[in-house]
Amino acid sequence: MDTDRIEREILIDAPPERVWAELIEFFWVNARGGALTVVPGARLVTRDEHDHEYPIVIERADPHSVLSYRWASAYPGREPGAGNSTLVEFTLTEEAGRTRLQVIESGFATLPEQDGRQAFQDNTGGWDWVLDRLTTATTAA
C-alpha cells in the first residue's frame, strides 16, 4: 500500500464552473484575513472543526480545471515548507455536463515517520468526508 499518496475521484452531477465555485467556497469559508485571492503564491489561513489554524499556500490555480496548494496538516499553525507539508491537487474534468473531480494529496513520506503515518491516516478519512460534503453542496446549488 502506498502511504505517500491519497487519491480520490468522484463524478459530480454539475458543470466544472459550479464545482469550482463550491470547491473554493468550501475550502476557504473559514479562511481569515482579507479578500480571498486564489492565485499562485497566495497565502491564507483556514480552520478545521476544532478551530486549529492551517496556513495554506496556493501552488497552482487554473479556474474550472486545476487547484493545488501546500499545507502542513500534521502541524497546525506552522507555515508549509520543505519537510513539514503535503501537496493537495484537485483536477476537474468535464464529462457530458458533469464533472469528474480528482484529489491527490502527496508527500507524506517526506514528513517524519510517525507524523507522516498519522497525517496519512487522518487525511485518508478526511478526504472522504470532504468530497461527500462538496458533492452535497454542489448538487444542491
TrEMBL record:
Q: Residues in domain Activator of Hsp90 ATPase homologue 1/2-like C-terminal?
A: 13-136
| Domain of life where this protein originates | Bacteria
According to its UniProt entry, this protein's organism is Prauserella sediminis
What InterPro entries does the record point to? Answer: ASHA1/2-like_C, START-like_dom_sf
State the protein's name.
Answer: Uncharacterized protein YndB with AHSA1/START domain
* Similarity comment text for this entry: Belongs to the AHA1 family.
Which Gene3D superfamilies would you find in this protein's record?
3.30.530.20
What Pfam families does the annotation carry? AHSA1 (PF08327)
